[in-house]
Amino acid sequence: MKTVPIVHCFNHDYVLPAGVAFYSLLQHARTPNTRYALHVIGTGLTDGDRALLDGIVARFPQATLEFHDPPPINIQMPRNMGNFSFDIFYKMMLPELLPQYEEMIVSDVDVVYADDVASFANELRADENCYLCGTPDIGYSTWRGRGILRDVGAQKFFRRYERLFTEEERDRLVIGVGFFAMNGRLCRADDMTRRWLDFAKANLKRLVLPEQDVLNICCHPQIKVVSSRFMAIAGYEPEYRTLSESQRAANPAWDEMFAHPVQIHYASGIKPWKFPHCACSRLWFEACLAAGLFDRWREWYARFMAPQMRTMFGKRLLDIRLPFGRRIFHVQCHKESRT
User: Fold this and answer.
1) Do residues 273 and 110 touch, judged by C-beta distance below 8 A?
2) Is residue 140 one of the residues assigned to a domain?
3) Which among 20, 65, 314, 325 is most buried, taking Cβ atoms within 10 Å?
4) What is the pLDDT of residues 231-243, one digit of tens each?
5) Are 155 and 238 part of one and the same domain?
6) Do residues 308 and 287 share a domain?
7) Distance from the Cα of residue 75 to its chain's centroid
8) Which of 242, 227, 9, 199 has its CA nearest to residue 120?
């Protein structure tokens, strides 16, 4: 029986989306004589978190789940990392943490699956002279002029690469690492964990997509690029729907991504559990319902929205009361003059 190892690095805040990701992954895991070995490395996971995820995976006889204590890493996250969690750096430790695997799939959990990942596992063999295997980083490569990217926010985000990276480094940014395969055998042989961590420590303040920048730059050119269908970026789906036939013909990666995707990745800060009407959210909520996690999401969403609702309600009251006070009570608002 073939084993497909799939490794995830996340913390307590991502347990709910991890449950949805695991369920949708295993729901589509139908390749005969294949065992799906799920591994989790993360910080702050409670006994309840582990029990929740164990319960989901236990529904599928073809799958196993194993938790690993996070290793110590001497890296101080700078403030400019935004919403990235420290757990992303554990991806760089995987060849040493899981020495039993010659190759493994590595995935984020802000995803939903639409097809069997076993087809992706066949894309990389341990005897190949490649460290990584993944889909084209369509966002950055498109922004550089090899396609279509009209999103102004994305253009502003990717412009940071022009300012912070050399042209040679930018040419090495080949694949996205939200979903990729790693050649553990070759990475161990060439001491890649040390090389990745050394580069990360030396360049922390200029990394834009931290682990993606490190893995691409250090592994180039020994990176295998495969079809975009293995990881479709949800945020690009609305733009994809607006493309003309000629634009799609000139940029086939977009059709590859959305025609028959294996995984849909909510790569930006717009996540369906936070913004229920975002692109491709219907697929995530269908998996959430099927996994029996909808009530848990509803409770979480009520807590998530409570402070925002208080802020919105307070602003609304202020908007109503100030004009009313000025008209009825002749309230005068002015700045105090200073001498």
Assistant:
1) no
2) yes
3) 20
4) 999 988 988 888 8
5) yes
6) no
7) 21
8) 227
